[in-house]
Every structure is written in C-alpha cells, then in structure tokens.
Specification:
The protein is about 30% helix and about 25% strand. It is of the alpha+beta class. Strands 7-8-9-10-11 form a 5-stranded antiparallel sheet.
C-alpha cells in the first residue's frame, strides 16, 4: 500500500531470500536495523492494473445486457507460496520449460485475483479452478504444443476456443503472429466423444487438445471431415494477451467469439 502498487508485483528480499506475505520478521530471523530489499515487477503491476480495468468495464455491461448474460464471481486463488510451482506445473503440461514473460504475468494475475467471469453473449467463460490443470471438455488450461486455453465453451452443437499460443506453434503452423498471441477457433461438438473424452482418433494416440489437433485441421482439404467439423479454423485475434484484454475493454466483447 505504501508503494501504491498491487501486492502481487512487490517482492521483499532479506539476506538473499524472498519473504512471503505470511512471514513475520521474527520468524525469518530479521535482525534489528536490518536492510530488506523491495523489488517491483513492473510488468506484473501493469498487468494487474489492466485486469482490474477489464473487470470494471466487464461489470458495467451487466446492467446493459440481457439478465444473466454476463457475470463475475469470486473463486479460489492460488497463493503466493504456491504460485511458482503452479506456473512450472502449467508450463510442463504445455510442453514448455517456462512460460514466456507476458504469458507468465497474465497467468499469475488470473490465478491470484480470484475472479471467474462468464459472457453468454460471446460464449466465453473463465474460472481459475478450470485453468490450472490440463485442458479438456468444458474446461480451459494448458495443452501440449505450448498452448494455454483460456476459454472452452460449449454452445449447443458447437465448441468455442480461445487459445494463448505461448510456444508459438500455432503461429508457425498457420504462418501468422508471434509467440504469445491469442487465437480463436470453433468446432462441432463431435470434437468430444460421448463419454466426454477428446475425439482425436485421427491424430494418433494424442487424447488432448494439443497442437497436433490444429496441425491436422490445417492439413484438411474439407472443413467438415471427420471426426468433427471445423466452423472456424484457428485465427489470430490479438497479438498478445495484453492486446486481447485491451481490445475486449474497447469493444465490449471478446475478440473472436460471437
């Protein structure tokens, strides 16, 4: 508060060790008149402030839309002490050594803010607890090939996806954009089997929403080919996650989507 910065962006360091917000000076052995360093992560601060601006703009639309068309809810957060291991776990699930800086900043903000938001007009839903494990039916999250799904939304016969291309492989496959861009795609509901598993039998043994799925979609000659139709092949809707949320604030709707 004294620094006027979001707490997520401030790190206290004593004797080479990072202090947790749950630590007391006595518990970590800080001597009287000792020097404690304060490190400010400007990218995290900027990202946190932009997300708060987004939530404010999103909330203002609640009264302007059809009742229940949009909503914001409080959900569980990932604690400061768990954050580093959770980021590493998500990177591994995505097949990456680490998440790129901007993607990492947004992931930290999304996991630590404790907010879920849903927009039934644009078919977009995000929940923290649906973001920290592998992506699958009705839930976002990481997937092999450097992908982070921030939206997996079933709408009658279709499924809509918003995907952060953290590893840059979508950009490579589709010849557009750079690592960290946000992409949109829409398929038929047949992408899921009746038991809720991924209908990916044409793509080898892969049972996830990996880059191999979209690589195979790119190679198709007919969008309606089995095992599922493709309404919208992956298309770049924002060059970065920051640009994605800025565009949402400006337009009042999720880029891509409906």
């Amino acid at each position: 508060n004294a620094l006027g910065q979001p707490s997520i962006s401030v790190t206290l360091v004593y004797d080479g060790n990072q202090l947790s917000t749950s630590d007391t000076l006595r518990s970590v052995g800080v001597a009287e008149n000792a020097t404690i360093s304060c490190v400010l992560n400007a990218k995290l601060a900027e990202t946190k402030l932009l997300f708060e601006k987004f939530l404010e703009a999103f909330g203002k639309l609640l009264n302007a839309q059809v009742p229940n068309a949009q909503g914001i809810a409080d959900v569980a957060v990932v604690s400061e002490s768990e954050m580093a291991s959770k980021l590493q776990e998500m990177a591994i699930l995505a097949g990456l050594e680490t998440l790129p800086d901007e993607v990492s900043a947004w992931t930290q903000v999304l996991l630590s803010t404790g907010k879920a938001f849903v927009d039934f007009d644009d078919d977009f839903a995000f929940r923290t607890d649906n973001f920290i494990a592998a992506a699958g039916p009705g839930k976002c999250g990481p997937a092999p090939g450097g992908l982070l799904y921030i939206n997996v939304f079933g709408d009658n016969d279709n499924v809509l996806f918003h995907i952060i291309d953290a590893g840059g492989q979508l950009a490579s496959v589709y010849g557009e954009g750079v690592p960290g861009g946000v992409w949109f795609a829409e398929t038929g509901f047949e992408i899921w089997n009746d038991d809720g598993t991924f209908s990916g039998y044409n793509y080898g043994s892969d049972s996830t929403l990996s880059i191999d799925v979209w690589r195979a979609v790119k190679a198709r000659k007919v969008p309606s080919d089995e095992p599922f139709c493709v309404c919208t092949a992956p298309e770049l809707v924002a060059p970065s996650v920051t640009a994605f949320f800025n565009a949402w604030i400006e337009s009042g709707g999720a880029p891509g989507g409906r």
